[in-house]
Specification:
Largest sheet: 7 strands, parallel
Structural class: alpha/beta
CATH architecture of the largest domain: 3-Layer(aba) Sandwich
CATH class of the largest domain: Alpha Beta
Shape: globular
Radius of gyration: 21 Å
Oligomer: single chain
Order of helices and strands: EHEEHEHEHEHEEHEHEHEHEHEHHH
CATH superfamily of the largest domain: Glycogen Phosphorylase B
């Protein structure tokens, strides 16, 4: 079966349309649309999409009242089960909620795929295989020793992201404001390098997150260390274009961080730690510098002329364009369909 004849169902996570897995789901769906592929999105009713849209919940969980989301587990499985009613209309069904995918796939005869957007536990992986799911890791670092069907990096819509090849005027940090993301290290780097730092991210509602902000971030805020809060993606892109570099000094492994691809798409280099999957994703010294030594990171910030902003954009185009991601998924779907036809 050729790709243009494939009928694809994309089943989105139910939380909202702004989180990492949700944005990747949107990017993949939009890339398919731009390629003329027949794709239908299963997502909460309040999602904004150009695709054929079958609502899975009345609204996203994040937009529900406390009473409405009193049983989140039930809502999660309900949102994923909606595709069962329409399964016979599709050639392949692609899930983006790894915890519920196996339960739904067990009720569907069609080939099913699941992309793992979080750490892959052995029991979830084993459950996926037992349900006949084809599995996708988003980086080799995430995959580890598991034998997933494919590794496909997250993609961003390059055609919608404007870039700048002019040297930026400040450093930038984007991410949750917690210990994992290393925002306190980013602040230390900026202070030692005598550079301005713009911080974008969510403080969080837990007492732990509020305490972290109060102790590790707030005391250092001034005219050079500036907290900008949470903003929409278009504003993030605008600030990334004007940044000298993105600081990404994570302390523990991540799956496939979107902001890395987004920064490069804007022409902005990355300065961060050697924690996975950064060495895997950033394989050129022209686009990134990685080290676990604070003095080396400070030196990199002071010498950003070592980077090539045109190469940043080209690297993103070659590796992280959502069209590249979509083509890799279509290749996987094609192999799955051929394998299914061969064994039936």
């Amino acid at each position: 079966m050729k790709n243009e004849n494939l009928r694809i169902a994309i089943v989105a996570p139910p939380f909202g349309d702004t989180g990492g897995p949700e944005v990747v789901t949107q990017n993949l769906t939009d890339a398919f649309l731009n390629m003329g592929v027949d794709v239908t999105l299963f997502a909460p009713a309040d999602w904004n999409t150009r695709a054929k849209h079958i609502p899975t919940l009345g609204k996203s969980i994040q937009n529900m009242t406390k009473a409405e989301k009193s049983d989140i587990s039930k809502l999660r499985i309900e949102s994923q089960m909606k595709v069962v009613e329409f399964a016979e209309n599709f050639d392949i069904i692609h899930f983006h909620s790894q915890r519920e995918a196996a339960s739904v796939a067990n009720k569907i005869k069609n080939p099913c795929v699941v992309s793992f957007h979080n750490r892959i536990s052995q029991d979830v992986f084993d459950g996926a295989l037992a349900a006949g799911l084809y599995t996708v890791a988003l980086s080799q670092n995430q995959r580890g020793n598991l034998k997933t069907s494919a590794i496909i990096y997250n993609g961003v819509p390059m055609r919608n992201i404007k870039y700048s090849f002019e040297k930026g005027e400040y450093l930038m940090f984007v991410g949750r404001l917690n210990d994992q993301k290393g925002i306190d290290t980013a602040i230390e780097i900026a202070i030692k390098a005598h550079k301005k730092l713009f911080i974008f991210g969510r403080i969080g509602n837990t007492s732990e997150r509020k305490k972290f902000f109060a102790e590790k971030i707030e005391p250092f805020l001034n005219d050079n260390i500036i907290y900008k809060g949470e903003v929409d993606h278009s504003e993030i892109y605008e600030f990334l274009r004007g940044a000298e570099a993105l600081l990404f000094p994570i302390r523990r492994p991540e799956v496939c961080p979107m902001v890395v691809a987004e920064a490069l798409a804007c022409g902005t280099p990355i300065i961060g730690t050697t924690i996975g999957p950064l060495p895997e994703l950033l394989r050129s010294k022209k686009i990134a510098f990685l080290s676990d030594h604070i003095d080396e990171l400070v030196e990199a910030v002071q010498h950003t002329d070592r980077f090539d902003r045109t190469e940043c954009r080209k690297y993103a185009q070659d590796n992280f364009d959502s069209i590249v991601m979509a083509k890799k998924y279509l290749d996987l779907y094609d192999k799955i369909i051929k394998n299914t036809n061969h064994t039936t």
